[in-house]
Amino acid sequence: MSSTGSTYGDIHRYEPARESTAAAIAIVLLTIIEVVFVFLFTFGFVSGWGLTDTGNMFLGGVLAVIFVDLAFILALYRKEFLPDVMIVKKRRRKWEDLYVREEDVDGVTLGDGAWDQVKRAVYPYYKR
């Protein structure tokens, strides 16, 4: 679904999510695996596995698996269950983003001496 509106905030393109059953089942299975690894990490942490060298590496590996599994869950959810929406945004000139006028890009000399020649463009984010 596309619209021809060009005003700020109009939806330019909207594609609904696929919402496949296979993705939902995969998310549920990955969530169960996530809970098992979180329980394993918590049990190992409370039991003191981290006090030995190999136990510390094992807990680090389990923690890495937890975050990788979470990344797969979030990627599947984003791809399969969130719609693809593109809205019209206001196009700005380069100078408006810096809050500096085009003629002031080289800065403003504040003094005459070598130490007094401070340019305003060094810190261009000032309020108008």
Automatic annotation (TrEMBL):
It comes from the Archaea. Pfam families: DUF7318 (PF24002). Keywords: Membrane, Transmembrane, Transmembrane helix. This is Uncharacterized protein. The chain crosses the membrane at residues 21-46, 58-77. The keyword Membrane applies.
